[in-house]
User: Fold this.
Amino acid sequence: MTAIFNIIAPVFLMIVVGYAAMRRSLLMAGQLEGIGKFVLRIGMPMLVFNALATKPFAQTFKPEYFFAYSGASVLSFVAGWQNSRLRGLHPTLAALNGLGFGMSNSGFVGYPLLLMALGSSAGGYYAMNVMTENLLICLPLFILLDLSQGQHRSWGQVLRQAGKTLLTNPIIQAMPVGLVFSFGLLPLPVFAERISGMLASSSMTLALFMIGASLCGISLRDCKPADMLLVAAGKLMLFPLLMFVLMNALGADKETLFAGMLFAAAPIPSLYPLFGSMHGFAKETSGTMLLVTLLSLIPISLVLYVWQPV
Assistant:
């Protein structure tokens, strides 16, 4: 139990530090925005680049993990989206709930936890998550959000806009650059490895701090408990269950199963309330993210207890 606490405590205590700093007005909203831009535009792209560029592709890519994580993500996304549609929720909120079911906070929570549990091999799993989450979750999300606005644009226009949004993401742009070195097409300079590692390490701490700060001021009182609990159940129960079934079906080893289950147990990403606020559902998505973040301690602890390699 001490080992589990030593992995979980630094991550969630850093979230608490961010919450407390914002609560005591040690940071202004503009400063938090600057931290967020650094993390998303510099830190996390460097994390992806470093994870890919510093290891041969054959060591980084595990097909059983990639296909299991992709399958669990897509099935969970579809389940959340369709369930919300059947319950009569607005098409925009239904699309967002698909994200809530099928995408983990891999970079800000899952990766720091896995790094403390496994060490440097965590980067390869995170890089595979980035491919899945951006190509199989974010791209359909952008399309559904666009269609839900009722602007009657052609499919070509919708797909072009979704593709443009995806391709201008610095995290996506970092992937082909990292793969150049991962495939051995060019040798990775020592200085590039070191500076990308430094930026990646700093981004993890700041990302956790930013999560806590962004949770400050969120209230659950005006949210619908049934809607929040449904998303929480989808993210923290359905997604891990699908991951477990698919990983075993594909013959994943113990370390790979542990990595997949830990990422699946991570809470909803910050994109959920971010897109929610952009489309008029800030209250619903922010409250749900707070609840899922708090409840995620349960499945994360369970995964560490049952599957953590000794």
In short: The longest helix spans residues 122-148. The CA atoms of residues 70 and 132 lie 6 Å apart.
